[in-house]
């Protein structure tokens, strides 16, 4: 029996083990299940609920229809984009050069780094770039890896992080609006009691159909979950750190708590710059002109950056602006 232990351990630790293959296959199932949920809820709301909540042809109905269409499209767009885009290809020679340069730094400067300067990945057989980590499910090193999300069957990384964050933001608004519209409709039905059959016309019974009850429950559950995810992700984004880096930063802060110079995340550029770093894309025609404006200009810029786009992220997966580089630049 003892002779079987090494092969078993080797099998489970190998990158081709059935555990990670199962996670990959399960990710495909959850991805299509998530898309089906969005499409199903959209069809149910638009075909059953909207004609009952507003009279077709009225401005209110048109407003609800436009809102439903826009939120459904943007949610699906960001869902597919987050699942499709991967982190940028990293040049092995460049990571080796950075590792050599990092090893030549003085101990004082090395303590200011978030990662060790020379981290070698035995699976990919190359040095890792700064902020890069190996994902066993994807079986590759991922630039600025946040976590592996089974709902998109992909890692949240330097390229698709903006799409993932916008996905949960649009899910928050779309499910929240649908949930409260249906909630008000059900409250009216309950309040009027015996006359509930005449409130929404002869087709009012559809509000008590199983598809709408299921949609109401799903939207309420997803809306509650998105509140947590937006707060959780937003706290990391405003500090320009991933979930993996939050652990690293916390450990270094505890180690250097009593030192003369406390540890600071070198990639934390301030909340506004951190948010722009996540959302900005290459060749953006508006970003450079608008990011130095006042409060109203910043709000308009955020609305612009939240629009669907196929422009690639401005991050190359290797080089990241640091606090030492940006601190003297005007915000």
Automatic annotation (TrEMBL):
The chain crosses the membrane at residues 20-48, 60-81, 163-191, 212-235. PANTHER family: PALMITOYLTRANSFERASE ZDHHC16. InterPro entries: Palmitoyltrfase_DHHC, PFA4/ZDH16/20/ERF2-like. Belongs to the DHHC palmitoyltransferase family. This is Palmitoyltransferase. It is found in: Membrane. It is a multi-pass membrane protein. The keyword Acyltransferase applies. It comes from Trypanosoma cruzi. Its EC number is 2.3.1.225. It catalyses: L-cysteinyl-[protein] + hexadecanoyl-CoA = S-hexadecanoyl-L-cysteinyl-[protein] + CoA. The keyword rRNA processing does not apply. Residues 117-247 form the Palmitoyltransferase DHHC domain. Coiled coil: none annotated. Keywords: Acyltransferase, Membrane, Transferase, Transmembrane, Transmembrane helix. One of its GO terms (molecular function) is protein-cysteine S-palmitoyltransferase activity. Pfam families: DHHC. Its main location: membrane. One of its GO terms (cellular component) is membrane. The DHHC domain is required for palmitoyltransferase activity.
